[in-house]
Amino acid sequence: MNIHQEFSNTGIPMSSSALFQTFKTSAAFRADRFPANDQLLDAPVDTPKPVSAEELQHALFATVDKSEMHASQIGNAQSLVNGKAFAVVTGQQCGVFGGPMFTLYKAATAVAYARELSQRYGVPVVPVFWVEDNDHDLHEIAIAHALSEGKVLTRDWYDFLPEHRTIAAHWTVTDEMHKSMLQWYKASSGPFAQQSLEMILDAYAVGNSMSEGFAHIVQSVFGHSGMLIVSAAQLRQQGLFTSLLQDVIHNTSAVEQRYQEAVQALSTFDLQPTAESAVVNAFAFYQGKRYRLTKDSDKVRIQGLPDVPISDAGVTLGPNVLTRNLCQDSVFPTLAYISGPGELSYQSLLREQYERAGIPMPAFIARKSAVLVDSPTRKFAEDERIWKLLFDQRGQHLYEEELFGDMAKDIISPISKNITLEYKSLQRSVGNIDPTLEATVLRIERDAHRNLKDLHSRIRRAQRKQHETSIQRFERAQNSVFPLTSPQERILTLGTLLPRIGLEGVQRIFDAMSSNVSNEQVFIHI
Fold first, then answer.
1. Pairing, β 334-339 against β 315-319
2. Closest CA to 145 of 99, 180, 190
3. What are the two backbone dihedrals, phi and then psi, of residue 242, each rounded to the nearest 5 degrees?
4. Going by C-beta distance under 8 Å and a sequence separation of 6 or more, which residues neighbour residue 59?
5. Looking at the predicted structure, is the pLDDT value of residue 149 above 70?
6. What is the DSSP letter of 39?
7. Residue 175 — φ and ψ, nearest 5°?
């Protein structure tokens, strides 16, 4: 199986947001909002800060059973627990079948940076994947896609969603849902279809949570790299960031003040915040469900549970969007966090919160991106010399221009201009004889333009029919790069690839991506 990188920039932007573009291009912005970034690859390293050994070890081994972990993972876990290693952290919600491919590209980027920093510093640096299974917005994780005969199939499991507020760690696979997954996944085809089906259905066995299924997928792909996988729900239940969130709850005014300072800092770069500070920047968890916290007369209450005090023994605390990274870095000695474009938007608000909490702020690094191209697409693109067009969402129009130009436009446009000029002259002449005839002249002119436009469309259709085979081949090729007209990494899932290239092939893709930190975008031939 031929899996290798071809070039370092696909030309497909990860995001067009103003903040992300500023992050990529402005050293002043990074220095102000992400001060650790410029020192990441060349600054000396202090001794890793100690972590809560027993609780952290329990959480790491509870997410992935120790008997299923690779020796490198067990060694990395012990190094972290004993305060002898740093971490490069990334994370995501636990999407069905591993979620969109960009989720796993974040993991591959974390592996690459952990390896690079370990070599530079001469100390262990461990990649960590934070499974965000405290989330109760289950609609975000319920959709999956598959390929069948070149077409993208979409399936959501909304019908199986549990009751409102249930978190992903408590959304378990029922027998009916398992059968639905079996029937849907059978639509995928390829030489590794049976192997892939067994792996997917083992991950999402009846009684497993969506969190356990997701962790199983990530473990299968990245376990051999030494990546540690940790459940946010396990860490919360172990109480590893309770004290930090209690401080947030008891000092809401100070947290809000620092948030406003960050908003003001963004405004100096003509940027607006994409996340708002809540009254209380934490959630309460009770009986497997997540609730917002409110504040009334300086007393914090659980919204929706008026009779349950926050001090109840069954209540635990978890972060919201503005405190999640702080919780991560209060547990792990984090050198860098691997972010997606959307994450960087709200992480640009966090510098002041790190300073207030007394937690060292890590570097924040944009994840890698990739486009996977199969042999038929590669051959067509090379034969036609149209690589750049494939990676342009306007590519089909540009390809048609290359095939047959726009003869109709070239001929008809000058005629249309002449019609306008001639009819204006006619209108003036007729108006001198009888002004009431000017409207008739205008109507005839409009009819002439409409007929020319219709002729243009007919010529275009005839040209497309003449080159129908080539256009269809281009459409199929570009659909592999922009399935459902979206960037590939946001649509395709691991479940899409496994039947075609198998687990070993998938691992080789991510090994290629994580071979170095320099290529932010890669094209990979599979």
1. unpaired
2. 99
3. -65, -45
4. 230, 231, 234, 235, 238, 240
5. no
6. G
7. -60, -40
pLDDT digits (tens, 9 = 90+) for 248-303: 999 999 999 999 999 999 999 999 998 899 999 999 999 999 999 999 888 899 99
Strand intervals (E) in 320-368: 334-339, 363-366
Provide the 3-class DSSP secondary structure of residue 190.
coil
Structure-block tokens of residue 112: 């690459």
As beta bridge partners, residue 282 has: 319
**For 99-145, what is the HEC assignment?**
CEHHHHHHHHHHHHHHHHHHHHHCCCEEEEEEEECCCCCHHHHCEEE
Give how far the C-alpha of residue 222 lies from the chain's centroid of Cα atoms, to the nearest Å.
18
Q: 143: which strand partners? A: 156
CA–CA distance, 353 with 261 (Å, rounded to integer): 10
| Amino acid identity, position 473 | R
CB atoms under 10 Å from CB of 17, counted, come to 16
Quick one: pLDDT at residue 303? 92
Q: What is the DSSP letter of 405?
A: T
Extract the tokens encoding 305.
């549970």
Angle of the 252-267 helix axis to the 242-250 helix axis, nearest 10: 80
- What pTM was computed for the model? 0.88
**CA-angle at 504, arms to 503 and 507, nearest 5°:** 85
Per the listing, tokens 């690079």 go with 116
Cα 262 to Cα 275: distance, rounded to the nearest angstrom: 11
Distance, first Cα to last Cα, the chain: 7
C-alpha to C-alpha distances, 513 to 5, 90, 205, 387, 522, nearest whole angstrom: 8, 16, 30, 20, 7
How far apart, in Å, are the Cα atoms of 423 and each of 308, 434, 442, 444, 455?
Answer: 81, 15, 8, 9, 20
Identity (one letter) of the amino acid at 517?
Answer: V
Q: How far apart are CA 456 and CA 405, in angstroms?
A: 13
